[in-house]
Amino acid sequence: MPFDKNAADVLFMRGEYEKAREMFLMGAEEGSEIAAYNYAYCLLGGYGGERDPALAKSFFTFARDMEGGESCYNLAVMYLDGVGVERDLRQALAYMTDAAELGSVEAMLYLGMCYTLGYMLYPDITGICMIPYHKPEMRLDGVLMLEGDMGDIAKDEEERSTVVRQDQRRAFEYFAEAATADPTYVEDLVAKGRFLFARCFIDGLGTDINRNVGMQLMLSAGKLGSVEAVAFLAENGVDTRQLAEFNVKPND
């Protein structure tokens, strides 16, 4: 019987991790990239069996060309923290760049901030789950960054400052990509991208200052749900009645 992704996803969501893991492995052996990705996720998080980050890396690598860039993103974070692999910030940057090229909004935002500051940051989003759909796993709940060895802290800080150089134009380009990405499943991240892209025009980051364009983008970010954009607009005199129409919760 060929791999049935929907059935495997349902098993995982029911908490029947061992059965789901077996099905994902079967699909991976059949050549399915998404099955390989999900099997790697099970290995990384210890779902349905022992954790095996090193083996997870192999299956993420098999799926590295998967559209959307999720696999490359997870590989990048593994290299950033040395989980299942030897820590390598340059390899992490290469995978993060590939992830952005494949469509990962998480990677676009991460790289935009890295090139803004000239520093390899600790990622806010420490992994992406695809069961059943694309879902960022945040730092406190994620399965990554559990066991990485930072080693010499001072050396680590120096390395993070030398691997990537400040480049405002590249930052601008990554924020532009994030701002115009498909918001399906990642609406909050695209909203953040629009907010940061707006700030580029308002602050002159990587482009000429154009407050009119920046404010239009800020309005768009607010309508999409950016709390930061709504706060900025309120501070800059936008009618509060207009802001009240935005789909933003006060405690977001």
Quick structural overview:
This protein is mainly alpha-helical and 252 residues long. It has 13 helices and two strands; from the N terminus they run H-H-H-H-H-H-H-E-E-H-H-H-H-H-H. The chain has helices spanning 5-13, 17-29, 33-45, 53-62, 70-81, 89-102, 105-117, 153-163, 168-179, 187-203, 211-224, 227-235, 240-243, and strands at 125-129, 135-138.
Q: In the CATH classification, which architecture of the largest domain applies?
A: Alpha Horseshoe
Helix content, binned percent: 55-70%
Structurally, the number of domains stands at 2
CATH domain topology of the largest domain: Serine Threonine Protein Phosphatase 5, Tetratricopeptide repeat
Averaged pLDDT: 90
Strand arrangement within the widest β-sheet reads 1-2
CA-atom Rg in angstroms? 20 Å
DSSP strand (E) fraction?
A: under 5%
